[in-house]
């Protein structure tokens, strides 16, 4: 793991700034002064203006590169009808591509924190020190140890976890629990999950469907690290979103061939919910 690389939990406090700056750069406003004039972002001499925050974030997420005095956009990895969704999915894609157990990328924390929550929590208190400590210990257990320029391991402290919550909410991975301050629900955005099914079908399936395990493998390589239970079921937070999509007839789970079936942990399924008994295949309802 490169220690000199910027750390996403230090540099990205407000991820919406990245969207604003990227749109300007993509439109041809590639120098700092041009981006300021186009967006209204502010540049500060100490390097902490909203412009500098946005540019650091774009570089850290692999969404832009610097060429002399200009900033050039990297292409988005997805092409849905929703530009904002393409942008957010590309942020996740770039991080997940480097989140490998053999050599954790420094920014893997974005998807690792979420993986832990998918496996362990459907609701959480964003200020809980006990929760942060559990996730931080798990980071060490799996060998993920981000370090600063001095080689010192960076602990998942309250400030860093607060920045992660901002990023995860923006990305559509969590959302505030109504009526409960500082509490969040772990539930991926249905639009994001639906778009991921379509993308996986196009890349790994026949364009109209694919095996459930193929979908899981595609997710783990391209968008999110999604754990399954020991029984091979989607954990409840992810299963709940898949269930909603099937119930609303945006996707369907069917029996197709003799591949291993997929289950939905903690979700009560009715015969009219678009999920067949012993389902092992996902189809899209184009």
Walk me through the structure.
The chain is an alpha+beta fold and 286 residues long. It folds into 3 domains: 8-73, Arc Repressor Mutant, subunit A, CATH 1.10.10; 83-186; 190-284. The chain is 44% helix and 13% strand. The protein contains 11 helices and 12 strands. It has helices at residues 8-11, 16-26, 32-39, 50-60, 83-96, 109-120, 129-141, 158-171, 190-204, 212-222, 236-247; strands at 64-67, 70-73, 99-100, 103-104, 123-125, 174-176, 183-186, 209-211, 233-234, 251-254, 263-264, 281-284. The chain has a 3-stranded antiparallel sheet with strand order 5-7-6. A 3-stranded antiparallel sheet has the order 8-12-10. A two-stranded antiparallel ribbon has the order 1-2. Helix 2 packs across helix 4 (50-60). It is globular and about 60 Å long.
Offer a few descriptive terms.
single chain, 286 residues, alpha+beta, Arc Repressor Mutant, subunit A, 3 domains, 3-stranded antiparallel β-sheet, 11 helices, 12 strands, 44% helix
Give the helices and strands as they follow along the chain: HHHHEEHEEHEHHEEHEHEHEEE
Backbone shape: globular
Find the structural class using helix and strand composition.
alpha+beta
Strand order of the largest sheet: 5-7-6
How many separate domains?
A: 3
Mean pLDDT: 94
Write the layout of secondary structure elements.
Blueprint: H1 8-11, H2 16-26, H3 32-39, H4 50-60, E1 64-67, E2 70-73, H5 83-96, E3 99-100, E4 103-104, H6 109-120, E5 123-125, H7 129-141, H8 158-171, E6 174-176, E7 183-186, H9 190-204, E8 209-211, H10 212-222, E9 233-234, H11 236-247, E10 251-254, E11 263-264, E12 281-284
Parallel strand pairs: 9-11
Antiparallel strand pairs: 1-2, 3-4, 5-7, 6-7, 8-12, 10-12
């Amino acid at each position: 793991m490169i220690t000199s690389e910027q750390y996403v939990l230090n540099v990205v406090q407000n991820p919406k700034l990245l969207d604003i700056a990227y749109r300007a750069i993509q439109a041809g406003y590639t120098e700092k002064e041009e981006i300021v004039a186009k967006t209204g972002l502010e540049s500060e001499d100490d390097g902490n203006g909203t412009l500098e925050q946005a540019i650091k974030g774009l570089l850290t997420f692999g969404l832009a590169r610097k060429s002399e005095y200009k900033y050039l956009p990297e292409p988005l990895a997805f092409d849905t009808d929703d530009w904002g969704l393409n942008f957010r999915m590309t942020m996740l894609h770039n991080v997940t591509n480097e989140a490998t157990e053999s050599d954790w990328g420094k920014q893997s924390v974005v998807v690792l924190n979420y993986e832990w929550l998918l496996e362990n929590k459907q609701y959480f208190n964003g200020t809980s020190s006990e929760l942060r400590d559990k996730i931080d210990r798990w980071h060490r257990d799996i060998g993920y140890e981000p370090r600063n320029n001095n080689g010192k391991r960076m602990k998942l402290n309250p400030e860093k976890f607060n920045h992660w919550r901002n990023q995860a909410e923006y990305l559509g991975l969590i959302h505030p629990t109504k009526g409960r301050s500082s509490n969040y629900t772990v539930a991926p955005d249905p639009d994001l999950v639906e778009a991921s099914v379509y993308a996986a079908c196009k890349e790994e399936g026949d364009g109209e469907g694919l095996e459930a395990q193929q979908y899981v493998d595609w997710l783990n390589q391209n968008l999110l690290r999604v754990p399954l239970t020991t029984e091979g079921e989607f954990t409840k937070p992810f299963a709940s979103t898949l269930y909603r999509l099937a119930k609303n007839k945006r996707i369907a789970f069917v029996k197709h061939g003799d591949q291993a079936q997929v289950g939905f942990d903690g979700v009560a399924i009715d015969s009219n919910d678009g999920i067949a008994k012993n389902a092992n295949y996902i189809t899209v309802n184009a």
